[in-house]
Design a protein that fits this description.
318 residues; alpha+beta; six-stranded antiparallel β-sheet; 7 helices; 22% helix; elongated
Length: 318
Amino acid sequence: MRDDEDRTEAYRQAIVAAANGKVVVDIGTGALALLALIAAEAGAAHVYAIEVQAEAAAAARAAVAAAGHSNTVTVLEGFSTEVLLPERAQLMVHELIGDVAGEEGAVAAILDAKHRFMDPMAPLPFSVPARTRSFLAPCEYPSEAYRQRFPAADALLRRPEGVRALKLPALPADELLATSQPFEDIRFEVGAPQPQQRAELRFELSRCGKLYGLAVHIEVHCDVNGGDTPADVTSAANGSHWSSVLMVLSAEGVAVREGQTVLVHTSAHLGGAQPRYTFEAWLQDGGVWSSLGSVIEYPEASLSPNDVMDLQLDRFGA
């Protein structure tokens, strides 16, 4: 996250505006304790930084000590749903946002934290970030120019048969066949994100082409005023450390015309430790609807990290 300058600066501005004088809890602080240290530097009364990975927690303690904030920042090791705080917090900070916004379990963690960590009388904002949304749009197969620019993405696109979800660097808008629409909206600012979400999206295709899949990107609102202002950062931007997720509908592509309609049903089950998504799409042609393949279940449809590494090694002859 540190090297994603746009994201880090958006978080910094929001935390600086909200943290002064407050007890802050940082969920998933990471090895750098980045958000915890921003809060401490912004004048937080105390920061409790929670990290489940033992090595990362040790590194976070070292980072806090090196920054001279050991008296202000306490690193707690464990799952956020299991650790205890010695006092109630007035502000939560976190970066529990996945390439599909809710896939890292943010909803379950925030609902638990509101109940066990947060002062019920604390003034808003409750959380930085305030809101995150996931968007999707029908898209074509990524262009040759894109694949030459991102050789690792080219390796993933030459995927094993049957893989239906790929994580790629920011897909350019030129690949989209219609304007993106939101299918997931997670509101953190008052600590009440919805654990079950469904959407029915209708896309009128803006041009002819070959429909290959559904491109997913996220937007994040850090603004402490409630998340209704324009997004601060998006995974669709070049240089984002989030990926675009490409849900594959057809390996060969389906020829489509301007003005045709694509219907997409989505569901998001976000209340558990492992969120689950489904995507199902149809194409309208002359008043007749035809399926664009079986239901995509995510994250089950994606390549595992080991598969990704093997594919890249094969691609580059290692």
